[in-house]
Amino acid sequence: MTAAPDQSPDGAAMAQDEAPRRPTPAEAWEILSAGNRRFVAGDPGHPNQDAERRHGLTAGQEPIAVIFGCSDSRLAAEIIFDVGLGDVFVIRTAGQVIDDAVLGTLEYAVDVLDIPLVVVLGHDSCGAVTAAVESYISGSMPPGFIRSLVERITPSVLAGRRRGVEDIDDFVAEHVDQTCDRLVDTSQSLARAVEQGRTAVVGLTYSLHEGTAQPGRVVGDLTI
């Protein structure tokens, strides 16, 4: 005969003690930072990439960060932060452009998966940002749905121009910062999570040559 589960207060307390504690935004950031340092040094640990980890994730996922980055093939989040299966929840669009699907996915990550850190990840020499800057200078728009990308990046170009920005990589950094602010301004769910201290938002600009991810805008309680 199978014994009934322990329903006593002590038993409940034990069950709570056994539940893994979610990392704080700062702890999640340190895990990603340490992984990036290993990647830059050429000494990655390749954690959580074996069969045991794969099998252990069949019941669910508990990522420590959601990474909203550019679709560029050189910007593979799991590699540059040296993490593995189930560690990060990744969203990618060209030029990390925001749309309804992105916002819905972010809100799912923060409110359902309880992810403590949102990373906005741009990179130098970004083609989408370059197209937006060139469109602003020439006054002409690209064809097809690429126009939609350019239109959504143009506010960041205008913000950069008001600050006297000229270099493409400076426009990239501006776009990362503007995207961080726009996410919190647009999503009430994300704004609430930041206000409650459940999550924080950090903008990073990745160097294709060096492999480093330099922080920019921070929204919320996160010490860098």
UniProtKB/TrEMBL annotation:
Catalysed reactions, semicolon-separated: hydrogencarbonate + H(+) = CO2 + H2O
One GO BP: carbon utilization
GO molecular function: carbonate dehydratase activity; zinc ion binding
Cofactor dependence: Zn(2+)
Cofactor note: Binds 1 zinc ion per subunit.
Claim: Transferase is one of the keywords in the record: no
InterPro entries, alphabetized: Carbonic_anhydrase (IPR001765), Carbonic_anhydrase_CS (IPR015892), Carbonic_anhydrase_sf (IPR036874)
UniProt-listed Enzyme Commission number(s): 4.2.1.1
Positions that bind Zn(2+): 70, 72, 123, 126
The protein's enzyme class: lyase
Renumbered residue ranges of the record's region Disordered: 1-25
CDD domains from the UniProt entry: beta_CA_cladeC (cd03378)
Pfam families hit by this protein: Pro_CA
Keywords: Lyase, Metal-binding, Zinc
SMART domains hit by this protein: Pro_CA (SM00947)
Functional note: Reversible hydration of carbon dioxide. Catalyzes the reversible hydration of carbon dioxide to form bicarbonate.
UniProt similarity note: Belongs to the beta-class carbonic anhydrase family.
Protein name, UniProt field: Carbonic anhydrase
Originating organism: Micrococcus flavus
Species lineage: Bacteria, Bacillati, Actinomycetota, Actinomycetes, Micrococcales
